[in-house]
Batch of 2 targets.
Target 1
Amino acid sequence: MLAPSPAPPESAGMSKAAFDRLEDHLKRRYIDAGRFPGTRLVVYRRGKIVHSTVQGFADVERKAPVRDDTIFRIYSMTKPITSVAFMMLLEEGRVALDEPVHQYIPEWKNLGVFQAGIAPAFLTRPPSRPMLIVDLLRHTSGLTYAFQQRSNVDAAYREMKIGEVEKAGTLQSMIDDLAKIPLEFSPGEAWNYSVSTDVIGYLVGKISGKPFEQFLKERIFNPLGMNDTDFFVPPEKAHRLAACYSADKGGITLQDDPATSSFLSPPSFISGGGGLCSTAADYLTFCRALLNGGELGGVRLIGPKTLALMTSNHLPGGRDLPEMSRSLFSEASYNGIGFGLGFSVTMNPAQTLIPGSAGEYAWGGAATTSFWVDPAEELITVFMTQVLPSSAYPVRRELRTMVYAAISDSNL
């Protein structure tokens, strides 16, 4: 899908001076200080790209600069794409949100809830209700992530290598292994960042009758022209893959060399929760389709009412993430933020203590990539870098503050 040509910020009610301050902030605080290798930032408003910049290096060791077409590991920014794919099947009447998960994964029918013990001798109790598909989409399933390191259930995930950054096994082997581990809590009782969206990817494949990665390519990537988005980087594009780094004592240490990265070959585990690589341009295309009510350039992914359902808060009782979260970590942790079907959702901007709009939806990735869509302001922001973990620095809060500070003509 052809991107719109860049336009002066002032033509869409935004300030160039404010964007200059933002870029200077990224350069001084993160790139010159050695905290980030480089950055890629795109801001889109009122149908125009009003800010598009690159700074620093995609590969510090080889002194390769970040370019407009640099390919990044987007990790959990895969989740919104997987969630939209699932909702496409829902629109076709092939599945419903209130169906029990064991209807599609029979071996999960008797999953218990953790009480005590260490794997493989867990003591469990029956859940208060079955896990529903909506629990997977909103992370109230009782599943977890290995890196939480909070309970014996997390430890069992680590033992079986479930949900790790470097993926192992296959989607089917993950489903089989999860059948052997109890839930951390009864579905619906809490919010816990988890492998739930990987399970959604598995269900997309099972319900559609074709491999999950094929479904994404045929129904989303190819129609939208997202030609640089995939679960691996082919040889002809390998030179565009950025290096990935770990935050280390105020600096960075190489974590994944793009010359030897596992992302250079098709993975055995197709992770709908965190497996995709993409470019800022491709992800902007996906976000533009969302901002436009689920359609772009004659290609409709989902209808506007389905998108409205996805971007509503689905946490029980209308609560926000801090009220319900069991996680030590997630890609959003602010007061006033709820969770929809694949996105965090801003409910009360005042409670977040940063500028924003009610109805803004967003998510991020483990290597500090992030995006948000603000329908009220007709605004999209896509930010790319490659530093693990995303919690190392408060760059997402700073980006929101400074991008919203650039608005000189608000729609509200």
Target 2
Amino acid sequence: MTTERSPFGTITLICNSRSGNGGVGKALPEVEKNLKLRELPYEVFHTEGPGHATQLAREALERGSRFLVAVGGDGTVHEVVNGMIVDDKAVNPEAVLGVVAAGSGSDFIKTFGIPAMPAHAVSHLDGAESFAIDIGKVTFMKDGVETTRYFPNIAEVGIGAATVGKAARMPRWMGPTIYFFAFWLTVFKHKSANVVVDLVDKKYEGPMNNMVVANGQFFGGGMKIAPKAAPTDGLLDIQVEHARKRESVAILPKVYKGQHLPHPDILEAKRVRCSITADRPLPVEADGELLGETPAQFEVLRDIIRLKV
């Protein structure tokens, strides 16, 4: 095969074969078939456990690869992105990220209009079209140690992160509905926390159920949680939800269409950074991965990765 159709060179497919209840394994033959039809050179690497996609991405860049494609769900994209950034800088500024969604949760692609069908997504790997996108950075506590991760899509603190933890223990065959049911199992035991959210030029002090820090627009299996977010504007979209429990439940159905905003019980802000402390440790998640707990700080890294579209 030639490399003429791929200005970025050979494609490195990083595949999470356990993602989406085996969906990646089922989709990969079709993906490879379409890559061959388009004469796009590629190599395939399979992850063997949590964090392995990050290692594979880093090793590929060190070998000189400039075209990494995450094949899986949002968790796979999250890990590949973390392999592409070190100390808040791109390992190779000329490298591009491609995504073939084949997991149980693939919300990152919705903001950019990348097809959900793996075979159709391959068409977006052809040609030279790409553009720079922002990536979020979160610093949190894990086992008493301050830890940093990068997130391309959305992070949460509070009930949303607790819901992600619950969903991780539920059967994968539930697919995109898993977050919805996990929320209902979480909400009735939930108690709001008293927090201080530092928004640089002002602070929110008071009760909070959930804090959303969004780079992209969608999460939780298609919820349009941050309809105003743009991963190219150099800002994070922040929401601090402090409604009573009954109102929190009423808000949820509206989130699917992005109709929960504006709301008197949701503080909205766009900032390059923010931080949160609470009267008790609150769980922190990003891109559907439970990371650690508060205190936590968030900031945006502008135009740090190029996305293939």
